[in-house]
Write a structure and sequence with these properties.
It is built from 24 helices and 21 strands. By secondary structure, the chain is of the alpha+beta class. The strands form 6 sheets. It has a 7-stranded antiparallel β-sheet with strand order 14-13-18-19-17-20-21. Strand 10 and strand 11 form a beta hairpin. The longest helix is centred in the last third of the chain and has 32 residues. It is elongated and about 115 Å long. The chain starts with a helix and ends with a strand.
């Protein structure tokens, strides 16, 4: 491979140019997510029944669903949990099962169960199973603000807005929270039922028949036979004219024995923003879709849908994971460019050759572009896990290129004449074995993660794949591109200097004070740039990081300045490094045992917020839970500019979340709000209260 690249430089340049063009095509089309995709062969069936006890949930909801699920194909295991107000049934399928068909079959099996559930229970919702450690905030949520009453707004949003959002490319589901869904109440007159010889069961069976799905025949297309079924919509007038029986040759309709009127079900979920009740639309993106692209499409369609809506409504975006990811990626790119700039400056000072430094930095960029291209073609998403894998490999990407450059330099240094081809090949081969050994050892160590299964595989398989791709790309670039890139002007530059000339001529204090002065200047420039770019507050937050980086850089300079003296000292006092190593090992062992949090999975930490959670006794009506959390909301109203408050209530539970912009994080408001909430919690009783954020957690009750 090395000989071919050196003997065919034009083909090598064309190959890497093609890889660069491929990267420019693939990078904008990468799937960008916060966390890895959850591709487990599992589905969850969630059914709500506000106020119901676990035993009632188990008897009337969970058991019928389990019986229906047991008849599905490829089911490996069924787990269920019945708790106050909610039933959750998790269905595990055999590996290799087509989950789209499994979901369709499961929906068909639940058709009969839906009709026989208690009237107060909600409809079973089928959702992909997501492990708790991978659950993040909603992908995209928007608040619906309208002068219409909440229930009417929800009804209109259900029938008009939700289909529009579902039609947007990349959207998998759109769910409304807040308000109540419309229902039709049938109030039977027992006296009239007796007069006509009818029972309530007969009326219920007749109404159920109206919801039947009638087969309309098959449709054949492209060699496939599709079965078409139809179901007519039933209006309130049609429902009143429904014939229940015939008495004396005369039809008895529903309006003869009952009062039929439109109404709304009991509110099961309260949602408030800034103390005002709102309807929230939560949007879920399809698996494998680019979060940033889907977010852009949603934001583009919001004004269009708002303008076309047949009723007055205003959209206020509450949560946008795609935009948050875009901002974080932009910050990551900027920081990476800053790091590459610092590396360029340091390498240029060490190598004393700008051209050679540019080749080394170019090899890093080229290897990363190749990695991202392979991510796209292999279907690997860019997320916190895969980015962590690239971060792990960043140092080795640099090391491999520098080792090849140094080996070739030593072959060419001081020679005015000679066989350039043999020098490039021999220099690269000289370090080929150690580079291959260290790189492949790292790859093999991480590739062992691919044998992990189920939940662990969701985290560690993408990490192993990203590390493996990055390491192999670094070898490819170091062995094929670096030797070819060093031909021409770079070769003559290497010949004109001896390898020893690239070493620092200064030693001791003369070198140390120059290095420390340069480090101080870099730190001051970095702090000033952060101040000018992000403001004083952000620059203050970055000051510890800038100071830490400057301290580390200064320590490296001091070590290099006195490296000869330190080496002689270690050779004379051989036990000194051994004692230091033992002390460090003991200290690290203590820190790992006492300070490191073990167990669970890592996830990115959000900005610090104030969180209030209340749990009233089981069976408490959701309205009382909502009024309880409203007391906490009133304690902090009105909110200052830059503070955002969200609250919700479901069943006997309620919660409150207060977020602050960066400018308010260092103000007195967070501590003031926390103290007010704790004082109110001390006055309340008969419930569990938990308050967290900007201090130690506060708990009361239990």
């Amino acid at each position: 491979m090395i000989r071919f690249a050196v003997d065919h430089p034009v083909a090598t340049w064309m190959l890497f140019a093609a890889l660069l063009v491929t990267g420019l095509y693939a990078v904008p089309r990468l799937n960008v997510e916060a966390m890895p995709e959850t591709d487990l062969p599992e589905l969850s069936i969630v059914t709500s029944w506000n106020g119901a006890s676990p035993s009632a949930i188990q008897r009337s909801v969970t058991l019928p669903i389990e019986e229906a699920v047991a008849g599905c194909h490829a089911v490996e295991d069924i787990d269920s949990r019945s708790e106050h107000g909610q039933s959750t049934v998790t269905v595990k399928y055999k590996r290799g099962t087509n989950m789209d068909f499994a979901r369709l079959e499961l929906s068909e099996q639940l058709g009969a169960v839906r009709r026989n559930l208690p009237p107060q229970a909600g409809q079973p919702m089928i959702r992909p199973y997501v492990p708790e450690e991978l659950r993040a905030e909603e992908f995209f949520s928007v608040n619906l603000i309208s002068p219409l009453p909440m229930n009417e707004l929800r009804d209109r949003a259900e029938s008009w807005l939700v289909p529009r959002f579902l039609a947007i490319s990349g959207v998998a589901d759109a769910e409304l929270r807040g308000g109540a869904r419309p229902i039709v109440k049938v109030l039977l007159d027992l006296q009239k039922l007796e007069n006509y010889g009818l029972t309530a069961d007969q009326v219920a069976n007749r109404l159920d028949a109206l919801d039947d799905i009638v087969p309309a025949g098959p449709v054949r297309r492209h060699g496939l036979e599709l079965t078409v079924s139809v179901r007519d919509d039933v209006t309130l007038a049609q429902l009143q004219r429904t014939v229940l029986a015939t008495v004396g040759g005369q039809p008895v309709t529903l309006r003869h024995v009952a009062e039929v009127r439109p109404d709304f079900e009991d509110i099961a979920y309260y949602s408030r923003i800034g103390g005002e009740n709102v309807i929230t639309l939560n949007i879920t993106k399809r698996s494998g879709q680019n979060s940033i692209a889907v977010s852009r499409r949603l934001r583009h369609e919001l004004p269009v849908i708002q303008a076309d809506a047949p009723f007055a409504v205003h959209f206020e975006v509450d949560q946008d994971e795609g935009r948050d990811l875009q901002e974080k990626l932009q910050e990551l790119v900027i920081r990476s460019l800053v790091i590459l700039g610092l590396l360029f400056a340091m390498l240029a000072a060490a190598l004393k050759r700008v051209r050679l430094t540019a080749i080394v930095i170019g090899s890093i960029i080229l290897a990363i572009v190749i990695c991202l291209s392979l991510f796209y073609f292999f279907g690997v998403s860019v997320n916190f896990i895969t980015i962590s894998g690239l971060t792990i490999c960043f140092g080795m990407l640099l090391d491999n290129s520098i080792l090849v450059l140094d080996a070739i330099h030593r072959r060419l240094s001081g020679r005015q004449e000679g066989d350039t081809r043999e020098a490039l090949i021999a220099g690269t081969r000289e370090v080929a074995f150690p580079i291959m050994a260290t790189t492949l050892t790292t790859v093999v160590a991480f590739l062992s993660f691919i044998f992990m299964t189920e939940r662990l595989s969701l985290f560690y398989v993408p990490l192993a794949v990203s590390v493996g791709i990055a390491m192999l790309a670094s070898i490819f670039v170091a062995f094929c591109w670096i030797p070819v890139a060093l031909k021409g002007p770079s070769e003559r530059e290497l010949r004109s200097t001896a390898a020893a000339d690239d070493e620092f001529a200064l030693r001791g204090w003369p070198m140390a004070w120059r290095w420390l002065l340069a480090t101080l200047i870099i730190a001051v420039v970095a702090y000033g740039g952060a101040w000018a770019w992000k403001g004083r507050s952000t620059a203050g937050d970055w000051l510890p990081w800038i100071g830490g980086a400057a301290g580390l850089l200064g320590a490296v300079g001091v070590f290099v300045a006195w490296v000869d003296a330190l080496t002689r000292l270690h050779l004379k006092l051989w036990f000194y490094p051994l004692v230091l190593l033992v002390a460090l090992s003991v200290g690290m062992g203590w820190a790992y045992k006492e300070k490191v949090r073990k167990g669970g999975f890592w996830r990115p930490q959000p900005k610090e917020t104030i969180v209030v959670y209340c749990e009233r006794p089981v069976g408490t009506d959701v309205k009382l839970s909502s009024e309880t959390i409203k007391l906490f909301e009133q304690e902090v109203l009105p909110l200052p500019e830059g503070a955002h408050m969200r609250a919700g209530a479901f069943g006997n539970q309620a919660w409150l979340n207060i977020e602050f912009d960066d400018a308010l994080l260092t103000s007195a408001y967070p501590e003031l709000f926390r103290n007010k909430l704790i004082v109110l919690a001390e006055e309340l009783g008969g419930m569990f209260i938990w308050i967290n954020g900007f201090g130690d957690p506060y708990m009361k009750g239990g």
